[in-house]
Write a structure and sequence with these properties.
By secondary structure, the protein is α+β, with helices and mostly antiparallel strands. Helices cover 16% and strands 38% of the residues. It has three helices and 13 strands, in the order E-H-E-E-E-E-E-H-E-E-E-E-H-E-E-E. The strands form three sheets. Strands 2-3-4-13-12-11-6 form a seven-stranded antiparallel sheet, covered by helices on one side. Strands 9-8-7-10 form a four-stranded antiparallel sheet. A two-stranded antiparallel sheet has the order 1-5. The longest helix has 15 residues. A hairpin with a 5-residue loop joins strand 7 and strand 8.
Length: 225
């Protein structure tokens, strides 16, 4: 079975191309969900089993005055309705710390240098807007510090994720993750998002949220044992 997509607007085509290039760096195949107003690209590997998970939401872009018709036929496999519940939007995890990320270009440069020294990286952050990227091996220990990043409001609002409530503001939450998976996420960003943050569940998972004007991307990287 094939899925046919037609794009007639040049601005939409360029924008869609950037989104697809980002997703292509994260997964070879994914699930496409269509609604009247949005497109969803979903990767639902089980984080508990060591796989990454992704949820990308693309709004219907407005048309511009430039037009170009591009049509593609793409082989697809249709998911039976009985399995649709397996492809719901993931919930925000019960995190220990939520923090805004530094400029992704800077973070990407740091991670690319660290990738040559270790297969894993430790991300740690606190509720005072501080985040560290660390690698530790038998031969070398390297840490990059970021300060004054800020913490999203939900990290301190009543009624939100309980693990952050009453937490010492200086106390670090950390998770060791596969550095290549983090590098893939950062390498795939064509434009710096309007907001970028991560939620850390200590020693379990790091949940990244990247927000553009009409695109949102959630990416879950499980912690290594």
């Amino acid at each position: 079975m094939r899925f046919r997509a037609k794009i007639v607007d040049l601005a939409c085509l360029n924008h869609f191309s950037r989104v697809i290039n980002t997703i292509a760096k994260l997964a070879k195949t994914c699930t496409l969900c269509l609604t009247d107003s949005k497109l969803y690209f979903i990767l639902s590997d089980k984080v508990a089993n060591g796989g990454v998970s992704m949820w990308c939401e693309l709004c219907q872009p407005s048309l511009s005055s430039s037009s170009r018709i591009v049509t593609h036929d793409i082989p697809v496999g249709v998911i039976p309705r009985r399995l649709w519940n397996d492809f719901r939007e993931p919930s925000v995890p019960d995190f220990d710390v939520s923090i805004y990320l530094p400029v992704l270009k800077t973070m990407k440069s740091v991670v690319e240098r660290m990738k040559n020294l270790s297969n894993s990286i430790v991300i740690e952050a606190n509720l005072s807007g501080e985040m560290n990227l660390k690698i530790e091996t038998d031969l070398v220990s390297v840490t990059t510090h970021f300060k004054d990043l800020g913490n999203p409001p939900w990290a301190s609002e009543d009624g939100c994720q309980s693990s952050a409530q009453g937490r010492d503001l200086e106390s670090m939450a950390e998770a060791r993750i596969d550095i290549k998976k983090l590098q893939q996420l950062l390498a795939g960003q064509q434009v710096n998002p309007t907001k970028a943050l991560c939620n850390i569940v200590s020693k379990r998972v790091v949940h990244f949220i990247l927000l553009h004007e009409d695109v949102s991307l959630q990416y879950f990287i499980p912690a290594l044992a």
